Amino acid sequence: MxxxxxxxxxxxxxxxxxxxxxxxxxxGQPPSTTKGVVIKGNAPVSNEILKVKLPRPQxxxxxxxxxxxxxxxxxxxxxxxxxxxxxxxxxxDPTEFPGLSGxxxxxxxxxxxxxxxxxxAQEQETMASGLSVSGGGTGETAALAVSSLVDNFDKTLALAxxxxxxxxxxxxxxxxxxxxxxxxxxxxxxxPAFLAAERYGAVMYGSHPSxxxxxxxxxxDKVTRDALVAFHRxxxxxxxxxCALVGDITLAEARKKIEAVFGSWKKAGVTVxxxxxxxxxxxxxxxxxxxANSVQSTxxxxxPGIGRASADYDILSLLNAVIGGGPTGRLxxxxxxxxxxxxxxxxxxxxxxxxxxxxxSTEIRGDVTTEAVxxxxxEIRRLQSELVPEKExxxxxxxxxxxxxxxxxxxxxxxxxxxxxxxxxxxxDYWDKYPERIMAITREQVQAAAxxxxxxxxxxxxxxxxxxxxxxxxxxxxxxxxxxxxxxRK
Length: 490
Fold this sequence. Notes:
Blueprint: H1 2-10, E1 58-61, E2 67-72, E3 78-86, H2 100-107, H3 117-127, E4 130-134, E5 141-149, H4 153-165, H5 171-189, H6 192-205, H7 217-222, H8 225-235, E6 242-247, H9 251-262, E7 286-290, E8 296-304, H10 313-324, H11 330-338, E9 342-350, E10 357-365, H12 369-385, H13 390-407, H14 411-423, H15 434-440, H16 443-453, E11 460-465, H17 467-470, E12 480-483
Parallel strand pairs: 2-6, 7-11, 7-12
Antiparallel strand pairs: 1-2, 3-5, 3-6, 4-5, 8-10, 8-11, 9-10
Helix pairs in contact: 1-6, 2-8, 4-9, 10-16, 11-12, 12-16, 13-15
């Protein structure tokens, strides 16, 4: 759950909407510019296309449905293992129990049939091992993560299996966890980024599972031990699970150890239900969350995007880097470096298995809310009306490739890339050819993508701020719907 909240908050420092040129009243803003910013560009950068051929993990399928992936790295006596369980994430929460996957994952470390939560923690500390279970949010998977020294791997594996197979979900620990979650919920609702994420999720996804941000106090109260037991039994199954290991271990060694410990994990004979596509987003509109007396406004401007397997993924990734990719993105240079209205402005491309979203977000002074929305929309229009200058375009492509190259220093990242390939059915040489694909993208393709995906009729705006001060001026961007901080329509 936490992970999704942060993603939506980052995604939700996003809020969006606009009616671009020709379809909505003009804002009267001058064209966006970053003329006051000087990019020195002194770093030495090669113009040659990076050539890579990554080490391939060794793979095997186990009788109970687990797909084993091993990437050897014998430089240190450590092993990191992740078991990714398809169909156990928050996407599959029952309608009556939103957040149940996150509850289940968190509570699995609170005791088993033979170990208390304290004993689990003590064993990890004694072995210098790490164990965690993650789930919740709106993702499709849950994961058991393990890190261990080679000498302690067998003992750590036994502890991990006990946590995975035999969680006891003690009532006392569940009551404490529920109390903490309700307290966290009160704190979250006081944060503008959360309010923006909540409204943006509802705007972009409607009643789709991806609209969920956090359960309400009433929904938390409904969670019972029986619900956790039932979810664990139905969803924590080996069918389609991936067990990925990286470190000082071979495939033969890993297979022997995993079969010995997880071989009793019986195949359920189920298939993971497919994800559903969200409904179409309505006409462009402004959504204002009225937070009285706010001195700042939190903005999210965005539009429906793509799924991870889309053929346009690389192009939209480059488009996103141009407009909002870090401190050299156009939004950052415009709103922070030139205007001085914010500490930062960024954009995000969220690409699950189903249709995702593109979002630009920032937190700015309340007195320049309308101007900031106009500047964000102006940067979108600029992508649609002008080709990105050759120099800027080349620098962005090289930056993406350089970041990719840097990530390859970590074997765990390489293995993670191959897990992504498997989950989204990407070609075997997908990562080898990543630099080549990025460098082959043209300015015309990025412009066409901006016109296609950032269509004025689909762009949505979410603003969290003092409605008395910013509500009227936001009407220049379209119809304004107003909500209170509890998510109720005003």
